[in-house]
Each structure stands twice: as structure tokens, then as C-alpha cells.
Design brief:
single chain, alpha/beta, 9-stranded mixed sheet, 8-stranded parallel sheet, 14 helices, 30 strands, about 25% strand, globular
Length: about 675
């Protein structure tokens, strides 16, 4: 058996989009190999993903499998890019579009996916035509056809054999769940006992078809090219267990903050990817909006922040760009990227082999409630809270071990069956703590765990209801007055649990029969409480509301203070503490081989600047970063098992003053923080 295996990912990558219409002439006519390579090198780029085949279905090299672009000025444009980059030690993984291939759609209409809802990306809202034929949309291929699978595999083999070791990997893009009800998929669903009229069953079928495709392609490629890296992109890394990625060699976390993912998507995905033991990178973009934007530029400070956050979370880094059809590289783009990648190059010695230090884990609701889109809002709300609280955490799927964590969070809607209950009980027996919310842990007869609570009698009859908390027991920032809870809580009797907050009703629910003011009825001071709202018992905290989704939806800081108060009771003296404001971010990583820790502190507050960016279904807001002010002084402390031999700034090498505090803590003060600082703590 071959000893060859894929090389690790590099740190400073570019993804160079090249989706080029057949209606544009002179493709690659202005490509200058020397300028191309030198521009990338000057921007500190060490890897660039280039195109074999694009969404239009055209290839950019002399292919016998696909169709070369009809106006390709240089017959082997891709090969010229590969040779130019190889000369300056820049890697060139290769891109192949899978399900978006307009040329194949035209030539093989029998391969088309038939969406049950007739939804296709970039379709015109008023287009009633079948398969959105009259729209400038990507008309998706269905992977449940052997011809499609063979076409993709044959082109992958052609690229790998033609260019050999100069192509270290293949990036297969657009492996989607198109809600397909073509005849092949309908027959497959019926054969598997699935209902084509059920959206959940259609999603199961799409996922199974995709897995068959990935396995078919990867098995062949790994057998023939064992050193080849392989990744399949669907715009999100689904939290469905390590086995979901057995056909991958690494992960690429597509997450363009301004492109619809937002600034909270990547950290949650990265905190999950870091637990899987795979090499992984984060993908952002140089665009003001998202992919496909010509002439859009992101502020350099935004890229410094985004790249710094990737590095802080243990990811290699990638910035997306798009090459002009004439093949001329855009110098302004790489002047924008260069400052972030110059910093990253100097940071690399402090990133290699670093593992996140996390005391808290979020058990992903996405694992228990899979969807075809991106993150679950309960997971996102929990991750957002912990980031704002600067509490390092991991995100786990239901197959992951719980060992090594002090606290496990089950956000809002985690079904606890007998097997999971046994694992959680063992975790608590070893000293672990739990925080559950909403319906997590609830069963038809009570609770799956001993939480000191009596059976729920169902949702609170008032929606919204109000929470009355004890600020001294939870958080001093909480009011003594009732505050509104914008979702249905559970009616819980406390039993042996300590009650930290209670639920109180309004006078009545709003309806045509009776209503008060503009939104909802105020709390009724004369009414009895409706039960416990927040409790603690034997190391298990419980919040009777889906508080993490509520925070995701409404952003009410009081909800975060409730969670913070419960966490402090369950897990005092966290490993990392800092006075960074809520928009700040903090992580701690351990480099075992170097016997050192690296603490990353970041500050960059995104703002909603775009109010109506068009989407396929309407509009969205656009979060962006333009210029980031320096802040300071910033203090931080870590609790480590020993005394450091030296503390210094990773970028400048200058010593950072530190002092020992009670409880084995090491405290530092940074007089000034601009965007990102990495503090190295040697010898411990």
C-alpha cells in the first residue's frame, strides 16, 4: 500500500473564482504569467485555487472530457497559472463545479434536478416557468444519475493525471440538497420507503444521493492518487458527525461575513471543525458583498480582523477573489489582502499544531434537528453569547465524547434519549456541569435527568410572559423588575432545585377580544408566579425558555446576563478572563510541542451598513467592517498549571508585563489593542 498522503494545508490561500460566460470574448487574453505570480507572491499568498471547470460548464485547459471555453485565448490558461505559481512556490489546488454546469444542463436535460418548490438560485421572483427556464439562474444537476457522476470523476482524473503533483488537491463545488423530485429521485425515495411529498424525506434522499456521489468519486481518486486532497463544498459544514466527512481529506469553511453568512457563522463552524481532528481552513472574501461581485472591495482592516479570527480559532486562511474574464489579475485586490497575509505569515510559528483550550462545549441542536441550510439558530445564539462573554468553547455533535469539558450546554431543543441520558449522567458523576434550556431534557413523563424539577405541564399559557430574577444570585446587571421573554416558556415546578428566577404572567394574551398598547400586555403584579424560570440543582442549570434562539432572534442583553449568571454558578474561575467589551473576542490555544500557550485578543465591531441587499427571496442586511479603532488598556488573565518563563507579543517579539494572581492566574495588561493581538505565554 502506498505511503503517500496529502500534505497539510497552507495558511495564506486565495480562491480565484472564474465563472465566465460564453458571450464574453478574449478569455485570458490579458493573462501575464509573471505578473500573476509576482502579484500573488507580493501579497504573501502561498496557495491559490484555480479553475478547471466553472458554473457555466466551460473548462480552461485542453480537456477531452469537458468543453473548453469557446473564446479561450490561451488553450491551457489553467496550465499557465499552474506553471507560473510553481515557479514561486505557490500551490495550485484545482476547482471543479459539480451541480452548477449550464453547458451540461443544455446538453443533458435528463440530468436536471427538479426542485419540488421550483426554487433555483438567482431565479427571477416572478418567473413561473418550469425549472425557472426563463431566469438567469443556475439550473442544478441531479447527482442521482450515473452519467453526472462519471462526468465529474473523469474530469477529476484528467486534471490529476495531466498536471500531476503540481495539483495538490481538488475542490468540488456545489454539492447541494436541491429538494429533487426528478423521476430517478422519486423512484429512489419510493424504493427506500420515503415519501416524496414530505420535505424531510426529500432532504434525506438528497443527502443519501450526495453521499453516494462523494463515496464514488473519493474511493476512485484515493485509490489512484493517495496524495491528493479532496473537499466537497456545500456552503456549510454540517454538524452530523465525523463519519459525514470520511470522503474528505480536509475541511473548508465557506463563510463570507458580508455575503449572507454574517460575522457569527464562522466562529460556530470553526469551533465544531476544530473537534474533528481534520486540517481545516476558513473562507472569507475580498468582496464588499459576496461571490460573483466584480469591482467590489473590502476594507483592509476588515480582512485583518477576519484573518486574525481564523488564526485565533485554529484555521488556515483563505480569501476569495474573482479573476476578470480577460485574465488580468487585479493589483488593488492584492494590495487589500497583503496587510492581513503579511501579519499572518509572521504569526504562523505560533499557529502550527495549536489546539484550542475550551472548558465549555455546546451540544449542537443541528445534530438533532438537521436541515439543509446553515446553522441552527439555537446553536448560533449560544455561540454568540459565549463569544461575547469571552468564554472559550467547542461545538460537538451527538457522537463526540464529553471528556475534558467542565460544562456542557444543551441549547433549547435537545432530545435526550436513554443512551444520551446515560452519557450525561456519567459526565455529571465525574464532576461535569450541565446547562439545559427550553425543551432540552424534557420527556413525555418529566425530565430525562435528575434536575430537581417536577414534571412540566407544558408551555406557559402566556406568550410572552415575564421573568423575575434575583440579580444577587445571577447577575448584577439584571433588573429587579419583570422583563419580557419573547418566546413560550415551560411550566416547571421546582421540587428540590434552587430557584434563581420565576415566571410571571401578563394580564392576558393579546387578541381581538382584549389587548393593551402596541405590542403585548404588561405583567400582572397581583398574579401568582407560573413556576420556576431558572433553576440549579446538583451541578445542572435549567432555563425554562429557548433562551439561545431568543438571543439569536432579538439580541436582548438581559438574556445573556441570565446565562452568564448560571455559568458563573456552575463554572467559577474560568481558564480565560478579560475586560474586552462585548464586541471583543478571546481565545486560548496550546502548542504542546513548544510548551506554550497563545492567547488571542480581537476587537472589531461589525456594523449593519447595507439595509436592503437583494437576495433570491427578498433582501437582507449587510454587516461590514470599515475602520476599527484602537482600544485600551485591555486586561486579561489565564489560569495555567505553572509559572511562565516569558510572556511576549507574537508579532513584535516584545515582552509583555505580567503578574501572578491568586488561584494560579497570570494577568497581563495591553496598553493598546488594534484589531488583533497574540500574546505568547512560554514555558507552561
Amino acid at each position: 500500500m502506498s505511503e503517500l498522503k496529502p500534505k497539510p494545508l497552507r495558511y495564506r490561500q486565495i480562491h480565484l473564482d472564474f465563472h465566465t460566460s460564453e458571450h464574453i470574448p478574449g478569455i485570458g487574453s490579458a493573462f501575464d504569467a509573471e505578473d500573476f505570480a509576482n502579484t500573488l507572491k507580493a501579497a504573501h499568498v502561498d496557495s491559490v485555487t484555480i479553475f478547471a471547470k466553472c458554473h457555466h460548464g466551460w473548462s480552461y485547459y485542453p480537456t477531452n472530457v469537458g468543453k473548453p471555453h469557446p473564446h479561450l485565448a490561451k488553450p491551457d490558461l489553467m496550465g499557465a497559472m499552474i506553471e507560473a505559481c510553481a515557479a514561486v512556490d505557490i500551490e495550485t489546488p484545482v476547482y471543479i463545479s459539480v451541480q452548477w454546469d449550464e453547458n451540461s444542463v443544455r446538453e443533458h436535460p435528463e440530468w436536471r434536478a427538479m426542485s419540488a418548490t421550483n426554487r433555483f438560485q438567482h431565479a427571477l421572483p416572478g418567473d413561473p416557468s418550469s425549472l425557472k427556464q426563463l431566469s438567469p439562474a443556475w439550473h442544478t444537476l441531479c447527482l442521482n444519475h450515473q452519467g453526472v457522476k462519471d462526468y465529474i470523476l473523469d474530469q477529476a482524473r484528467e486534471v490529476a493525471s495531466r498536471y500531476g503533483s503540481k495539483v495538490p488537491g481538488l475542490f468540488f463545488d456545489i454539492v447541494l440538497t436541491p429538494d429533487c423530485v426528478c423521476s430517478a429521485c422519486t423512484q429512489r425515495m419510493l424504493a427506500e420507503g420515503l415519501d416524496p411529498e414530505n420535505p424531510a424525506d426529500r432532504l434525506k434522499n438528497d443527502e443519501a444521493v450526495n453521499e453516494e456521489f462523494r463515496r464514488y468519486v473519493s474511493d476512485a481518486l484515493f485509490a489512484e492518487y493517495p496524495a491528493l486532497r479532496v473537499f466537497y463544498n456545500c456552503g456549510h459544514i454540517h454538524k452530523q458527525g465525523r463519519q459525514r466527512f470520511r470522503t474528505y481529506t480536509h475541511l473548508e469553511l465557506e463563510s463570507l461575513p458580508t455575503g449572507g453568512w454574517g460575522y457569527d457563522h464562522f466562529p460556530s463552524s470553526a469551533r465544531y471543525a476544530a473537534t474533528l481532528g481534520m486540517d481545516f481552513l476558513g473562507q472569507t472574501g475580498k468582496f464588499h458583498t459576496s461571490w460573483g461581485e466584480f469591482g467590489g472591495f473590502k476594507h483592509p482592516e476588515a480582512l485583518i480582523y477576519e484573518v486574525g479570527q481564523m488564526a485565533a480559532l485554529g484555521a488556515k486562511c483563505l480569501v476569495g477573489d474573482q479573476l476578470h474574464p480577460n485574465g488580468a489579475i487585479n493589483h488593488d485586490t492584492y494590495a487589500t489582502i497583503a496587510p492581513a497575509y503579511e501579519r499572518l505569515e509572521r504569526l504562523e510559528p505560533y499557529l502550527k499544531g495549536a489546539k484550542q483550550v475550551s472548558e465549555i462545549a455546546i451540544l449542537a441542536a443541528e445534530f438533532f434537528h438537521p436541515v439543509g441550510a446553515r446553522n441552527n439558530p439555537s446553536d448560533d445564539g449560544a455561540a454568540q453569547m459565549l463569544q461575547e462573554l469571552k468564554l472559550p468553547f467547542d461545538v460537538l455533535d451527538g457522537t463526540a465524547p464529553f471528556d475534558g469539558y467542565r460544562l456542557l450546554i444543551l441549547p433549547d431543543a435537545i432530545t435526550v434519549d436513554a443512551a444520551l441520558a446515560k452519557r450525561l449522567e456519567a459526565f455529571v458523576a465525574k464532576g461535569g456541569k450541565l446547562l439545559l434550556s427550553g425543551t432540552s431534557g424534557l420527556t413525555e413523563t418529566g425530565f430525562a435527568l435528575d434536575m430537581g424539577l417536577e414534571k412540566s405541564s407544558g408551555p406557559v399559557a402566556f406568550n410572552p410572559s415575564y421573568l423575575v430574577a434575583d440579580p444577587a444570585a445571577l447577575d448584577a446587571s439584571l433588573p429587579k423588575a419583570p422583563f419580557v421573554m419573547y418566546a413560550a416558556g415551560q411550566t416547571i415546578k421546582p421540587g428540590a432545585a434552587t430557584v434563581l428566577a420565576s415566571i410571571v404572567p401578563s394580564y392576558f394574551n393579546r387578541s381581538y377580544k382584549h389587548y393593551c398598547s402596541h405590542q403585548h400586555t404588561p405583567d400582572d403584579p397581583a398574579a401568582d408566579t407560573l413556576g420556576a424560570g431558572v433553576t440549579e440543582h446538583n451541578g445542572i442549570g435549567y432555563i425554562a425558555f429557548p433562551i439561545f434562539q431568543m438571543y439569536h432572534d432579538y439580541g436582548q442583553p438581559l438574556y445573556k446576563y441570565v446565562v452568564s449568571g448560571v455559568i458563573r454558578r456552575l463554572m467559577p474561575d474560568p481558564v480565560l478572563s478579560t475586560d474586552l467589551p462585548s464586541a471583543g473576542r478571546a481565545t486560548l490555544a496550546r502548542q504542546e510541542a513548544e510548551n506554550r500557550h497563545v492567547m488571542h485578543l480581537l476587537y472589531g465591531a461589525p456594523q449593519v451598513r447595507g439595509k436592503a441587499v437583494p437576495t433570491d427571496t427578498g433582501t437582507r442586511v449587510l454587516e461590514m467592517i470599515e475602520d476599527i479603532p484602537a482600544i485600551g488598556p485591555v486586561t486579561a488573565s489565564v489560569k495555567l498549571a505553572g509559572t511562565p518563563s516569558r510572556v511576549y507579543d507574537a508579532l513584535t517579539g516584545e515582552d509583555v508585563a505580567w503578574k501572578a494572581e491568586d488561584g494560579g492566574r497570570i494577568a497581563v495588561t495591553l496598553p493598546r489593542l488594534h484589531i488583533h493581538s497574540a500574546v505568547v505565554i512560554e514555558g507552561v
